[in-house]
Amino acid sequence: MRERNDMKQYASHSKLICAVLLIGVAAGLLQASAAAAAVVIPDTVTVATVNGPAGGIIDVPVYIRDASGSPLGIDQPPGSRIQSYSIKVTYSPASSVQVITFTRAGITSSLTPTFENSPSTAGTISLLDSFQESTNLIPFTLDGALPGNQVAHLTVTLSQSAPVGSTVTLTLDPTLTQLTDDAGDPGTTESSGNGRLILVSGAITVLPSVPAFSHIGIALLALVLAFAGLRILRF
Among 4, 87, 158, 168, which is least packed, fewest CB within 10 Å? Predict the structure, then answer.
């Protein structure tokens, strides 16, 4: 009789232990799911990687991607939208660049900034723009495909002496590349330093330059094409 009671107590304790273990596993899974749901993908600033001939004028798009859940964005309340940006690019080797400019493009090209400046030093160039949200909302596409919406572009004239096959790096400055609202609220500022912004730097690969045709060369080419056309018509 006593053995039966011991067996019943053992079975009861075993069921209790199993129940506690199952509750613990379920709680752990719920916490893991909550942690995964809390992960926020930062916004992104991207400088494109392109090719261009030595001596050529190269267009390099610059993009911003607005990710949902970040401190700034179209999904946030008014006053917390991406309305200002500071983007600084360091280009190297500077000797491969003859002229470089940094201007608005894409979704910001038709907007009127309340402030705009493009300071430059040897080997660096920046673009600073700020837009009033109530009158010039930047129309970002939330969670758009990478690299996001084009907001600006670099126009780079490569030096004739730029070595063919070399690369001009276009590196985003991690300190001075930032996004913020039109009031410049430090609480919503996004930078790589505070983990709220991903920076994707770009580059230009130098291709062989294409010699320009002279007027005489163009005329000779036209004569050759005309002669070839006549021979085809005769047959």
Answer: 4
List of residues 6+ apart from 176 with CB closer than 8 A: 86, 88, 126
Closest CA to 71 of 173, 193, 200, 195: 195
| Residues 148-158 pLDDT 10s | 999 999 999 99
pLDDT at 81 over 90: yes
Distance of alpha carbon 204 from alpha carbon 53, whole angstroms: 10
Expressed as residue numbers, the domain containing 108 is 43-207
Instruction: Tell me which residue of 165, 177, 175 sits closest to 203, measured CA to CA.
Output: 165
Q: How confident is the model at residue 19 (pLDDT cuts 50, 70, 90)?
A: very low
Q: Beta-carbon neighbour count of residue 203 at 10 Å?
A: 17
Burial 51-75 (b: 16+ CB within 10 A, else e): ebbbbbebebbbbbbbbebbbbbbe
* Same domain for 55 and 11: no
Could you read off the pLDDT of 26-51 as tens digits, one per residue?
344 334 343 334 577 999 999 999 99
What's the DSSP call for residue 93?
S
